[in-house]
Amino acid sequence: MNDYLHVLRIQPVPQADKPAPQGGAGPDHLAPSFMHKHGKDHGGGADFLALVAALTFAGVGAAHAQAPAAPDMIKKELAAFYYSGKDMSARVSMRLINPEGGVRERNMTMLRANKGDTGDQRYLMVFDTPADVKGMSFLIAKFAKGDDDRWMYFPALKAIKRIAADDKKSSFVGSDFTYEDVSGRDVDEERHVFVKADQVAGRKVFVVESRPTGKTDYAMRTVWIDQERWLPLKEEYFGGDGKPLRVFSADKVEQVGGQWTITARTMKNLQTGHRTEVVFKEVRYDIGLGDEVFTERNMKNPSLAAK
Amino acid sequence: MKKAWLLAAVLPSCALAAGGIGGYAQQHLAYRATGHGPCAGLPACATMANEQRLQLHGEWQPGAGIGATLRTDAVHDRAVRTTRLVAREAYLDLTPSPEVSLRLGRQVITWGVGDYLFVNDIYPKNYDAFFTGKPFDHMKEAVDAVKLNALVGAIEAELVLARPRQDETPLRARFLAAATPPGMAVQAADRDGSDFALRVAGKMGRWDGALYVARYRAREPATVGVPGNALELELRPTRHVGASATGSVANGVVLAELAYVDTDLRAGNMNPYLFGRRLKALLGYATELGHDLSFSAQYHHEAELDYGRYLQSLAPMVEPARRAQQTVYLRLHKRLFHQTLGMGVQAFASFDGGKYVNSFASYSIADGLNLEAGFNWFGGPAASRYGMMHHDRNVYASLRYSF
After folding, report:
1. What is the pTM of this model?
2. Which of the ends of chain B has fewer CB neighbours closer than 10 A, N or C?
């Protein structure tokens, strides 16, 4: 019972359509987001209000019993965003835009396959343009638990190198996305708290705050998750000082092969003003990509993968 | 050379017909950073390199399972007064099934896992390009070969039959350390025979492993004085058995290589760095220290197993190298401004006291337009491998437009 009261105490003022707050337990969940930001404690009065809130909204929680807990919301979001279908292929265009409006482009073919229900995945990305990176390819073995393995192919040398890159900090080919943004993160790497129900561009969303359990370059992430499609429509990353670092937006969502897919997205660095716009074209799901596609051999000769 | 011209003339038209053509135009400059007195007799004394290069790259795929690739370089170097048209790569790909592929023709092959310290990469390098600061893709040279690649389950096998080719060593017209005594001629290396090599690679859990077996001509020539005031270069027969592994450890990548190499030594050899029976080993670690900040360290060890036979093979006036050669390689690389600006330093320290430090910077002015610049510093005892190049320290810059 005490735990239940603590969990309730972290929530902002409840709203009528808010589901029962069932965020995971743990020290970080015991302080509300606004307390972290402002360093305030509302004292005994807050405890009293929390008790009243607990008694008042217990019924509301029961009415929304079908709504998942915050970690489950994130699990569903990760599944919809990074794991839809058994496999996927797409032509990906990235535009890296600096604050002065200067544009650099990266165009690639991306193949992705899930390794059953393990959470492990394989990615193969082959660059088409610009000319100085044409033929370069990335192979990523993503593991649900632990760091991913990565290889890079340099066509001029016909050489494949296993590369050491920090998932959480390393920029993906100079963009505003990290490797982790591209291939996803493990739900257990953050502690999640449901904040409220809201709307984004006319879509009902759940708002969840996530705080990393390990070292990374952000202190808190807020995500707006589509209640029906479970895709992230918006994400904001904050530093330890509470200042916003980056913001992600889903600019276009389409249904492709029965899967709701974010086909246009933007990540903006709020510190520098630099942003990266990404468009997915020719998206296909469930095309039968097996383990044999995600090999060093196919990094060197992508046409083999195409077969 | 005639064959290269023929390929260069014929294949681009095929590529053009297919519409798949690209390449780059590049200007590379290198200036000697030490006094010019000692190099007064060299053609490339103050200006070590002033090279204009146009590379055209074409691909042609007339149908499923067949393709052709051509990469030709037109090169003019004012510093050493040479103009060349070379087919850097020219090969035909046949892919009868997804598991089997055959590549016929001139091609670059890279084996092993080291960056610049090589144990199992038996294929030729270009040290003239490396020591004048040319972009890293100039580091490897192609071989004329037939390469069969087969995937059997999770095991990948690569069988290569190739025409022997030596490393491109620093040019005598450019590097004082490579200069021959006045009036002495150098005869080209013997390239008879064929190189045979097999690589079998697979996974061991999350580790990548490979085994290598090869019988080939050494890439570094034996140098023998012959009558008529000439030096004869010879690529000696060599046998090679090796292994490599890479895996992720402690937020980084560990790499390891080991090889047993046996080169038939020839009496009267004047190249002290050509060993006979030896063990070669490499151990390295690379990690990302911070945002776009990478660090790598490698240790290379080469030990002569039959030092007596090695000593007997040397010409009388040649100072022998040490029984064991050890080199440490360190590299720190930082990328800034969304990876458009890179800067770093890499250093080689040999246990004979020789040191080589390369500081470098690169800037992507726009997509496809890149500027690189840096400094090559050689030091240590004059008899050491890097110390003997102390008159060849240089600053360099390259501008490349890719299309």
Report:
1. 0.83
2. N
